[in-house]
């Protein structure tokens, strides 16, 4: 072992210890490991920041933006309410999410399949009152397992097919992976549904801040305008759309005040007084296509139309709004500001929104141009709350986000453009078509995750550049010659699983496939089962958030720690190993 190889093993080993320890944030650990690698000479100066231009960083960042655009559109919420209104059990929701992601990942890039379903997971989490972390890690693992089923499902399958052609003159076909891959997918999904409680419930710091200021008793006013799907349906249907997070507290019909009984049928031009949290109110208004009473947007073509946003603010003790109503102030006509909702501590507001006389301490949701709202708040003595996304009253783009995501996945599936280019283009289109406001783009991108990835890539690659991976291969070769066929196959599988977090899955195949083929030849076996073992091992990194971009993608939204992954990933890895060896020996006889 050379000095550089020894230093590479020491740096990577120390980095893993600090990741598991968890006292320092993961991006700080990764950056420290990078600087230490540069200092000891195992990462050259001119390659220290190569990771920031790596495709994986672009893919993860773009997928986060695309997923946020899909979530913001509201189309996922609408689909759930239409097709799965009664799905309440956490286990049933998890089954739907995991199975869907697993099946989709067999035919499209697994990160695309995961990006589609992440907004669904958040919706289910709100409905079941659990943290999204309960769903996201099993979904990420399901996407990895699903990719094992076909040649195009994951990069290791593509690379190992090419290497088989180089070694034997014949590539694996599209569905050569299916018998073993589908069996593993079935075993893996069953395990994830039985063992999902091993996943800790985590929440990110941002979620905690939002929960600390969460207001759940806003009063808003909306009208059932012609064309609304709520017309002709009972009030209870609206409450169901809000998942119980909002209620109808009054109905005004042609000057008459009606009690909002669950069986009251909504008619055209009914004015509905709603009470609940901003997210639930937004779901009701957007899915039922209600018109927020008093809401008036700038005319099409007005340059401020694309800058419309909603914010929460508190009426200060010296505010000139105290004792005034929105109607009396003529807020929109005089100040281009709409009053969308009001919350008053300890009191249920039952009068029409425009007639409510504001008091000190009232919390209001105001809508207006981003450039004009700060001066309005200052002039009228209002204090903005901590910034968080308020979608109530914002402009939506319908099915456009899904179309952009579908276009990205289709172009990669037929090989027109590579994955990073397709997803970057989709993310850019989300911004250009204003699916996501500019102010929210960098909020959607999880900076610490991207920095961790970029810093880790040169550190992990030092294992290859110093010859450390060749050294590992030599050790494995010496061990394998003394093992029975099943043991040698299991050794290759485990080695590929262990190396993947440090080389990425495609590089693992490039390193391990020739070793596997040499094992098979030296032991007098056919190489197919050993090559398949390499592909399965390289595509099954369940132990870390860094070996595959799908694991990385859910780390920030799920609020996971580095040490959370082995809790579910280690037993899943053992299950996959136990199932893979006999399956390979059955379908690919040695």
TrEMBL record:
GO terms for cellular component: plasma membrane. It is found in: Membrane. InterPro entries: Cit_transptr-like_dom, DASS-Related_Transporters, RCK_C, RCK_C_sf. GO terms for molecular function: monoatomic cation transmembrane transporter activity. It is a multi-pass membrane protein. Pfam families: CitMHS, TrkA_C. One of its GO terms (biological process) is potassium ion transport. The keyword Repeat applies. The chain crosses the membrane at residues 6-21, 28-45, 94-122, 134-154, 174-196, 402-435, 441-459, 471-496, 502-523, 568-588. Keywords: Membrane, Repeat, Transmembrane, Transmembrane helix, Transport. Gene3D superfamilies: Regulator of K+ conductance, C-terminal domain (3.30.70.1450). Residues 207-290, 297-382 form the RCK C-terminal domain. It comes from the Bacteria. The keyword Repeat applies. This is TrkA family protein. It comes from Sinorhizobium sojae CCBAU 05684. The lineage of its organism: Bacteria, Pseudomonadati, Pseudomonadota, Alphaproteobacteria, Hyphomicrobiales.
